Amino acid sequence: MLLNQNTLLLGKKVVLVPYTSEHVPRYHEWMKSEELQRLTASEPLTLEQEYTMQRSWREDADKCTFILLDAEKWQAQPGTTEESCMAGDVNLFLTDPGDPTVGEIEVMIAEPSCRGRGFGTEAVLMMMSYGLTKFEAKIGQGNEPSFRLFQKLHFEQVAVSSVFQEATLRLAVSEPVRQWLLEQTSHVAEKLYRAGLAKSY
Which residues, in sequence order, are CB contacts of 41 under 8 Å at separation 6+? Predict the structure, then answer.
């Protein structure tokens, strides 16, 4: 989504940066993993197909994709590359053309060393603060870590598809949920993103 092409979100555990072509080689390596393919219901792509996918995600008006960086690693020393700090990605898809306040959210913590450290939770909360009023998550039936994450964030299971072997979880953002979200993300800072420039955050 062009809307987030200049946005960096700085959290306590993760930094969210727009998915750029510089991230594609590492992302492509991740997606060779059979485990990640199974957990994300993805098919393997060639490197060229991955570059094409990245461009389409960037240009599509209905997708907002960020790469998750390990904040501690990224801030540790000047000159650290984003690629060396990549932990996963988080996506928001606008799923109802008639209602731009409804979105499907997904998160992937691809780096095994970054799993179980709260990166996914913080990234999802940061994306949920974008102001939508309804969120859905579609999770493969064997993906227990994702089920736990979204249930912890108050999502409720509303449907199961035996054909796709996935469950749909949903969260409507009521006023109490919105207040809770604001409390959970009060530490997040939005910064101007400039790919390839030295960080001064």
Answer: 140, 164, 166
What's the pTM value of the predicted model, to 2 decimals?
0.88
Q: How far, in Å, CA of 149 to CA of 152, rounded?
A: 5
Long-range contacts (CB closer than 8 Å, 24 or more residues apart) made by 98-104: 101/131, 101/132, 101/133, 101/134, 102/132, 102/133, 102/134, 102/135, 102/136, 103/130, 103/132, 103/134, 103/135, 103/136, 104/135, 104/136, 104/137, 104/138
At 60-70, the pLDDT tens digits run 888 889 999 99
Give tens-digit pLDDT for 89-114.
999 998 888 888 889 999 999 999 99
Helix (H) or strand (E) holding 89, with range, is: strand 86-94
198 pLDDT above the threshold of 50: no
Q: Are 11 and 73 in contact (CB under 8 A)?
A: no
Q: Which amino acid is located at 96 in the chain?
A: D
How far is Cα 114 from Cα 118, in angstroms, rounded to an integer? 8
Q: Which residue has the higher pLDDT, 3 or 56?
A: 56
Strand partners for 166: 140, 161
Structure tokens at 177: 């949920």
